[in-house]
Amino acid sequence: MASTIQVDKITDIGGNTMLESNGSGTITGLPASAISSGTIATANGGTGAANFAAAGLTNTPAFNAFLSSAASIANTTFTQIIFNQENFDTNSAYNTSTGFFTVPASLGGKYFIYTTTGLNNVTPQRCSTTVEKNSTNSILTTEFGNGSPYGRSTASGVVNLSAGDTLRVLIYQNGGGSSNTLTGEQSVCFGGYKIIE
Hints:
Elements: E1 9-11, E2 17-21, E3 26-28, E4 40-41, E5 62-66, E6 72-73, E7 79-81, E8 85-89, E9 101-102, E10 109-118, E11 127-133, E12 137-144, E13 152-161, E14 166-173, E15 179-180, E16 189-194
Antiparallel strand pairs: 1-2, 2-3, 3-4, 5-8, 5-16, 6-15, 7-14, 9-14, 10-13, 10-16, 11-12, 11-14
């Protein structure tokens, strides 16, 4: 059996208003970044479902791309990986031809970024995966070495990005010769999303 709680105001222990309803489907008191034109529509056809998307409360841009065919990684050279297939790309911000994710206009902020890369049948002393910002600054890096011949490295973290910033992924290995990457969305992928602030 469903239950309903009806209130017109929620306050903190100090009596400060946290949320307040005007009784007609709108609320005030949320952070400014969450409010569109001063209020957020919370009613959705009378169901009471919060309309967060209308208020901009979504983790977008969001993208996820992967490598569908092996790429050759030269020995002792940082090589960019161009993830050529997408699972999703909400703002068309990732380019499958160049391998760059570009922060769309007016959508700078904090982003959670991740990548996984792997090499096929090689045991390098060092294998490094790096996410590079604006083709100059490494902002996420991880390494592995002398382990499984099908080793993978994963880098992830929260980074500050501005509109127009670009990200790309590079991999380095020193197994003694060229090596092919693994393929598939579980083994070689790149993605991220903007964090709601």
